[in-house]
Amino acid sequence: VGPWGADGCRGGGGFSLAIEGVLGGACGLVVSDALEPDFPIIYVNRGFEDATGYHAEEVLGRNCRFLQCRGPFAQRRHPLVDAIVVTEIQRCLEEGTEFQGDLLNFRKDGSPFMTSLQLKPIYGDDETITHYMGIQFFNDCNVDLGPLPGSMAKEVVRSTWITPDNTLRPSPTGKGNFCSEYSHLFQLSDEVLCQKILSRLSPRDIASVNSVCKRLYHMTKNDHLWRMVCQNAWGNDATRALENVAGTKSLAWGRLARELTTLEAVTWKKLTIGGSVEPSRCNFSACAVGNRVVLFGGEGVNAQPMNDTFVLDLSASKPEWRHINVGLAPPGRWGHTLSCLNGSLLVLFGGCGGQGLLNDVFILDLDAKHPTWREIFGLTPPVPRSWHSSCTLDGSKLVVSGGCADSGKS
Ligand SMILES: Cc1cc2nc3c(=O)[nH]c(=O)nc-3n(C[C@H](O)[C@H](O)[C@H](O)COP(=O)(O)O)c2cc1C
After folding, report:
1. The listed CATH number (3.90.190.20, 1.10.10.2840, 3.40.50.620, 2.120.10.80) that belongs to domain 285-401
2. Which tens digits make up the pLDDT trace of 125-147?
3. What GO terms in the biological process aspect are recorded for it (predicted)?
4. What 3-state DSSP class applies to 207?
5. Alpha carbon distance 210, 216 (integer Å)
6. Cα 119 to middle of ligand 1, angstroms
């Protein structure tokens, strides 16, 4: 980007400042990158911002044609913009020549003005055009286009405030209060406010804006808005998965967002569990695999190392412990670890067996038709140990840490 300032922000380049010095601040100055598709703007000066009402950060990276659309939400060039002049600009940009002409443009608030535009190509070292510079002189224009559709047509919405005691009162007016400072926000139609602004906020922010005024309060009751907000916050996959969870459809998205954000609905619940883990034991290891809890081994009566596997399915209507018959069980042990891998695999490591400390690794696929523990051999395993901790990473790694080794070290 060189002299234009690599950060592309207003005031970021010595060259642009020099030009501004020559021209004075009265006109607009725009620089576009000619090496990128569609001539994205990389610099605008203060004169441009003041005259158009658009801030630099709103326009950097865009093509300057948005000035031909009436207001920030218009999707199309206004019909009164001279198509012949636009075609001439296109031709000059394609051929790499200078352009000079007048055309109708619009400020951010939708009011029209005439721009006397000069476009000049800037050449790099190898004679290729690297940038285009646009110098704009802004003139008033006397076309009466009426109010901006969807916003100006409406009277500015006098918001009603909700007081702490939940009574409604009209918003205060006058300089410096919320409504006068943000009234242009309230000139937007419900649809634009919802789709373009509120839908991009986080669930927590939506929950706070709903107490700003009556209008926002009613808008944030819209479940479609809440779905968009949840989708933005949690991503498409999570939103789709939540939609498929039984009961979600009856739970409104707003309520769901509140419960997931505040975790207010989370409480301990005492479950009555059927079945039993027999014989009784201590120092076993248990691990959650989705909605299932798996228990392996432990220390039975007379310090007997155990090697049986039990599963408790918490999503069952009547959860009960079930002993599962596995093909080849690992040697009995206690003080070992069980970790879950990829939602259905269990990894068993180490512990203390009948012959002393262990450092072996076994894997069990709970979803297999006939679940079988399978020993995994790795090079240079960690030293044998018990009472360590372990976890899985990235769906393929087992991390083992600490514990008690034979040496008595931990
Ligand atoms: C540096 C630069 C500045 C420009 N400034 C303006 C402007 O102030 N107003 C305007 O209507 N078009 C301006 N244009 C022209 C439009 O960005 C666009 O090139 C024109 O509308 C023709 O292309 P289109 O038919 O694809 O929109 C500028 C273009 C460049 C490269």
Report:
1. 2.120.10.80
2. 888 999 999 999 999 887 777 76
3. circadian rhythm; response to blue light
4. helix
5. 5
6. 9
